[in-house]
């Protein structure tokens, strides 16, 4: 029971971090139809901005300043870069954001270097939140979960309960009508792109000290973000949440399990030998195949439900 509950909590905290990462990408795609390949790079920028601000002002100001800084960078990139290629279709957009991801990595290495930077967990959040049986659950993971849930609630309220949220949703389906009513649609899209980048920056602030802040952190999470978005359904925020939690729990349990298919077969009386076809695969612990499980789930989703778990549109 202790193993199950602690592993479940760890899986939920990891899944909610994945949601923080994927929510901005989902928001940008659902509102603009742009699949931002540089999204993980904005996550990395958030971590580095937070490190720099925390050195001078502390973690709590960095929690606010860093996402705003990343959002501003994203808005500028949309205004003077992405908007220029938007009229040529999706392929130029993909190429632009793909190249942008490499540019951001190079800029980060020029400014902060190639080595990891010392961006620790703040002292106030460094310790046990509670003890379950004999295992402690860290305060910072609880804080991470709280921020992710607050982010979800904030996005929902902004999009459904505010005037700007209604304008954003109307601009998605009827941009000409919204512009005829006096709203600046390109400025709305710039706000959406900047807001999505700010959400990635907030994930970087939280995830940068929970794991490690170094130039390879964007590449480490870049692929898993797209797995979450596709499995959840392109453009579906709730789908991204469901997929994030599913993948987080699945991968966390898989990493923690030291069983193999051979152990399962032995419980039913089967005793495969070394000469049995596929013995090496049967003998392999689940923990060793844990990293590829999300991608196996992605393949199954694309085969049986191409729109994703809760998707309403296709790329």
Please explain how this structure is put together.
With 315 residues, this protein is mainly α. It has one domain. The chain contains 14 helices and two strands, in the order H-H-H-H-E-E-H-H-H-H-H-H-H-H-H-H. It has helices at 2-32, 39-56, 59-86, 90-112, 139-161, 163-173, 175-180, 185-210, 217-232, 237-256, 261-267, 279-283, 286-289, 293-304; strands at residues 128-132, 135-138. The protein has a two-stranded antiparallel ribbon with strand order 1-2. A hairpin with a 2-residue loop joins strand 1 (128-132) and strand 2. The model has no long low-confidence stretch (mean pLDDT 85).
Count of separate DSSP helical elements: 14
Total strands: the figure is: 2
Oligomer: single chain
Globally, the shape reads globular
Distance between the termini: 42 Å
Q: What is Rg? A: 21 Å
Strand content: under 5%
Strand order of the largest sheet: 1-2
What's the quick description here?
By secondary structure, this protein is mostly helical. It has one domain. It has 14 helices and two strands, in the order ααααββαααααααααα.
